[in-house]
Design goal:
With about 425 residues, the chain is mainly α. It is built from 15 helices and four strands. The chain has a four-stranded mixed sheet with strand order 1-2-4-3. The two termini are about 30 Å apart.
């Protein structure tokens, strides 16, 4: 069984690297085409940024593979022998906490490189070392307190119930819903300042927009996003009575009132079509499948790796292999998500106009340096939003673009591979 698991994980990493290589090749050619949506300089910068992040992603995938070999090769057994505690539940918490901490430490250089080199080089990040490590400390404390509690409860369920995977799924799904409920009012304020929107005219317009969609919120707030990053965004956070509208201060500075309302209209389209609820249940379905798979792994699989089937080894295998399961279902979830994005765009066009929404999306793309082209295989696996060019075309925008050479090149690449 060791060989079979190793082959599956190897194929997973190989496919991820292959997709990234195809994307890099595509972007390297696409950046020399006439610029669309973005101005000429931002178009090239956006391509260079995306290429750099994909190269880093390839290295990250190779490190993930090395860590997989590290864990299944000996580290899971070593960690088991090092924690000499008779209490299974306490041992589970310590075991999984150390497992997660070690993985995070290994991934930390990538996060530092992205935040303090790449994002600063391309004009995104305003992060300071003090702020970064302050965020890291807060996140670590939240994990050690609440994450450890979740691990403890799941370990108890595994130790107590025959159909533990059903009850564990229910518990984790409830936790996800609770996090969505408390995130805007309890978690997000730990990292950012939220103040009620002061522009009364804009506030009235947003409230009218929400009333039209049938949305009740706990308030409209601006967030000091610019202290960390220059990207533009807005979102509706929370569920039920905790729901609130959050506008990045960067968004308010760059978009006109009508453009901002168009962006919020898009988000309201998701609310109107109940996409948030659909997404929660879609993720719940994937989570249920994962718990079913890992809840029915045979003892022989654990024995083949020199391990006993215990709560902590089950959770460790879940954490190691669940990305593989999620990757398989990403195209299906992406397809549904892209469909929902088109529908939300249609709703936003009714709230303002398609022209205003087009202008807003173009500004967002320019400010966020979002490269408008991607390899079809990359879109298939990773895109939750349709390619921006396709969105804008659907909204009636016409572009003079000649991508025939690029399409021929991609076809040639596919034939060679």
């Amino acid at each position: 069984m060791v060989l079979e698991v190793g082959i599956v994980y190897f194929l997973y990493i190989l496919l991820k690297v292959y997709i990234s290589v195809m994307q890099i090749g595509y972007l390297s050619k696409a950046k020399h085409l006439p610029a669309v949506i973005l101005d000429k300089k931002r178009y090239k910068d956006a391509a260079d940024y995306k290429i750099a992040t994909e190269r880093m992603g390839i290295l990250s995938s190779l490190v993930d593979y090395a860590m997989f070999i590290f864990w299944v090769g000996f580290a899971l057994r070593w960690l088991d022998s090092m924690i000499d505690i008779d209490n299974t539940l306490l041992k589970s918490v310590i075991y999984i906490d150390l497992f997660i901490i070690i993985n995070y430490i290994v991934s930390l250089p990538f996060e530092l490189y992205s935040t303090f080199y790449l994002d600063k080089k391309f004009g995104f990040s305003n992060m300071t070392p003090k702020m970064f490590f302050s965020d890291l400390l807060k996140s670590a404390l939240l994990f050690l307190i609440f994450g450890s509690l979740v691990i403890f409860v799941i370990s108890y369920i595994i130790s107590t119930f025959t159909l533990w995977w059903v009850w564990s799924f229910i518990f984790v799904f409830v936790i996800i819903v609770v996090i969505n409920l408390i995130y805007p009012t309890f978690i997000a304020p730990l990292f950012n300042k939220f103040i009620p929107l002061e522009d009364e005219e804009l506030k009235d317009s947003i409230q009218n927009l929400m009333q039209r969609a049938g949305l009740k919120s706990s308030g409209i707030f601006t967030m000091d996003a610019s202290k960390r990053d220059n990207r533009l965004n807005a979102y509706f956070g929370g569920l039920g009575s905790s729901k609130r509208v959050v506008l990045f201060d960067t968004l308010i500075k760059k978009l006109s009132k009508s453009e901002l309302l168009a962006v919020l209209g898009h988000e309201l389209g998701h609310f109107k079509h109940k996409d948030i609820i659909k997404n929660i249940f879609m993720m719940g379905g994937l989570l249920f499948l994962m718990f079913f798979i890992f809840g029915n792994l045979p003892k022989e699989l654990f024995y083949s790796f020199g391990l006993d089937k215990t709560p902590y080894t089950i959770i460790a295998f879940f954490l190691l292999l669940s990305p593989v399961v999620a990757f398989v279902f990403m195209p299906i979830m992406g397809l549904l998500s892209r469909h929902n994005e088109y529908a939300a765009d249609e709703y936003a066009s009714e709230c303002e106009s398609s022209e205003v929404l087009v202008n807003a999306l173009e500004k967002l793309a320019n400010e966020n340096k979002s490269f408008p082209r991607s390899h079809p295989l990359y879109i298939f696996f990773y895109f939750t939003h349709p390619p921006l060019i396709e969105r804008l075309k659907r909204l009636g925008k016409k572009y003079q673009e000649d991508s025939s050479a690029l399409k021929k090149s991609c076809k040639a690449d596919n034939e060679q591979n």
